[in-house]
TrEMBL record:
Source organism of this protein record: Mesotoga infera
GO MF, any single term: transmembrane transporter activity
CDD domains, alphabetized: MFS
Name used for this protein in its record: Major facilitator superfamily MFS_1
Pfam families (UniProt xref): MFS_1 (PF07690)
Major facilitator superfamily (MFS) profile domain location: 197-353
PROSITE patterns the UniProt entry points to: MFS
Ranges that cross the membrane: 7-26, 38-57, 64-82, 88-113, 125-147, 153-172, 198-219, 231-252, 264-286, 292-316, 328-352
Entries under InterPro entries matching the protein: MFS, MFS_dom, MFS_trans_sf
Keywords tagged on the record: Membrane, Transmembrane, Transmembrane helix
Length: 353
């Protein structure tokens, strides 16, 4: 599990670049927020095809690590390519980078599910999301320094850091605890049927990622432009939010046992909804709040987000048997990508008006 958490840290760095830097960087290079959002959306749409295919093949072969390693290589290589000065290559790199990191979630989540002992999913997914978010926070601390030197240099530095952290994943052996975790699964167990429970969960996933996933990549730009701070400072502010989410995710397993998974999930979703409603309705007033009140709102948002992200993976995983983890996460990936790409394009187009 420790080696998997090292991989989670690498994912955290990659997501730090995606959430905090990618769209503002592309906007600066192409001088078009709409184009930047559409490039990211294109990469996410490609994931609709790759995510489910990877999930299906992973379930059939039980070789999730093969896909994880390949997607890590593609993600890190494309992140390195973002430092290019050629606009065509930059656009291609942005699409491939987005596709690879969203496709990576399918086999990675399925693998964690397969190595989790009964009753430990909340804890293990909490650790996975916690380490990922804390790594994203640490990434945000260095983003400002790296960007002050050169935007292109920042991508090179973080590509190297992500590559170093992912090295332990490549030393797994097929006979280890993360190898063939489901030996003996019968053919009929591999049949995947979409029932009412799956439909309900997927509808909730669409709503969650449309509202939350669509706005997160733009938050750094909003903070930088509307509050009037530098891109590096805005990234650090978002990094603090990510740190709180990460620490909360680490605590999710304990909180879930104390309060119950359902009650904890509903409470966290209610907090998120209230924060979104407050900021949306009173946006001008929110911008005029003092730093302390802004910090309180940010901490509430981050606390609830950390719980939702950790429990969200467990809830999706629990809808099917161990034999179909890749398929359900592939389906979830499709729903998540469709909702988030739609939201990204919509927000980008509205900003461009």
């Amino acid at each position: 599990m420790i080696k998997l958490l090292s991989g989670s840290a690498s994912v955290g760095i990659i997501y730090g670049i995606f959430n905090f830097v990618l769209i503002p960087y592309l906007n600066g290079k192409f001088h078009s927020t709409a184009l930047a959002g559409n490039l990211v959306s294109a990469g996410m749409i490609i994931t609709i095809f790759t995510g489910m295919l990877i999930g299906y093949l992973g379930d059939r072969s039980r070789k999730y690590l093969f896909f994880i390693k390949g997607l890590f290589i593609i993600a890190i290589a494309s992140m390195f390519m973002l430092s290019t000065g050629n606009e065509i290559l930059l656009g291609i790199a942005a699409v491939v980078f987005t596709m690879s990191i969203f496709s990576l979630l399918t086999p990675y989540s399925a693998l964690v599910s397969n190595v989790s002992k009964p009753g430990r999913k909340d804890r293990n997914y909490g650790f996975m999301m916690g380490v990922m978010n804390i790594a994203t926070f640490l990434c945000s601390l260095f983003i400002g320094v790296a960007l002050s030197r050169s935007e292109e240099t920042a991508f090179v530095i973080f590509s190297i850091a992500a590559a170093l952290l992912v090295i332990p994943i490549f030393f797994f052996r097929s006979g280890s605890q993360v190898g063939d975790a489901a030996v003996g699964i019968r053919e009929e167990d591999l049949r995947f049927k979409i029932d009412r429970k799956i439909v309900f969960v997927m509808i909730s996933q669409f709503g969650l990622w449309f509202s939350m996933g669509g706005i997160l990549p733009y938050l750094t730009s909003f903070i930088s432009s509307d509050i009037g701070v530098s891109l590096g400072t805005a990234s650090s502010i978002m990094g603090i939010s990510t740190l709180v989410s990460g620490v909360t995710s680490l605590m999710t397993g304990t909180l879930s046992k104390m309060l119950g998974q359902k009650r904890l999930h509903i409470t966290a979703l209610s907090i998120l909804a209230c924060v979104f409603l407050f900021v949306s309705v009173f946006y001008s007033g929110f911008l005029n709040l003092g730093p302390l009140l802004m910090l309180i709102v940010l901490i509430l948002f981050s606390f609830a987000l950390g719980i939702v992200l950790a429990l969200n993976v467990t809830i999706v995983s629990d809808t099917v048997s161990l034999a179909n983890q890749g398929k359900i996460f592939g389906l979830n990936n499709i729903v998540m990508v469709l909702s988030q790409s739609l939201a990204l394009s919509l927000i980008g187009s509205l900003i461009a008006l």
